[in-house]
Amino acid sequence: MDPIVEKYSILQSLTLLEEQFIKGNCNDNDLKNDYIKLSNELLNQWNIINNNDLTFLDNLKHYKLLHVTNVELREVLKLGIRRIQIGINGFDEQLKEKEKEKEKPEPEPEPEKEETSIEVPTETIKSGKEVAQATSAFITLLDAIKLNYNSPEILHPLLSKIITTSSNINDNFKGRSNLINWLIKLNQLKNNNDKPILDDNQLENLLLDVDTAYNGFFDSL
């Protein structure tokens, strides 16, 4: 595998893992152990091949992996980037923070001040999160196609997530109708007893339609 593609795959995997950690989906004992093990393995793999260098993100466009700006890319992958910069998994980080809190001296009381705060509109926060989720869904499917995943059972849920997440922002962008047609076709193939797979020509057409819809989605924002 190309080193840059491998670095990107690790970073994206860490991002998806951190999303589940933040949602509290890793608190069960078994899931906690799975999270710690997978997170540590990804961090170790990253350190072996990359030595904490994130400059490769600026070169991804040359590999035609995606069609977003460097700023947008870093926003989408910010959870994985943060985990790499910290260097330890989320539970170890929490434990470390607790230990620091115990070591801190009791602060002296300060005079009360009138607090002023800037409120960020809830809709703005929600919109940014939904755009990031839709972007992540597009990237995941594009990567899967480029890695020659040709099983409808794998591709259908990935495409379904694109339809769901992008519709939260806009359900009328260029190329969306083609994605709906593919969703129906993949569902039919998935439920076929013969379990057919997509041939190279079909995969190429699917890649083109997803890429066109991806650009159409961003143009509509």
From TrEMBL:
Gene3D superfamilies xrefs: 1.20.120.1130
UniProt keyword annotation of Transport present: yes
Provenance organism: Pichia kluyveri (Yeast)
Pfam families on file: VPS28 (PF03997)
Cellular component terms (Gene Ontology): ESCRT I complex
Region (Disordered): 95-122
Gene Ontology molecular-function annotations: protein-containing complex binding
Annotated keywords: Protein transport, Transport
InterPro entries according to UniProt: Vps28 (IPR007143), VPS28_C (IPR017899), VPS28_C_sf (IPR037206)
GO biological process: one example: protein transport to vacuole involved in ubiquitin-dependent protein catabolic process via the multivesicular body sorting pathway
Protein name in UniProt: ESCRT-I subunit protein
Similarity remark: Belongs to the VPS28 family.
Residue spans of biased composition, Basic and acidic residues class: 95-107
Domain VPS28 C-terminal residues, every copy: 126-221
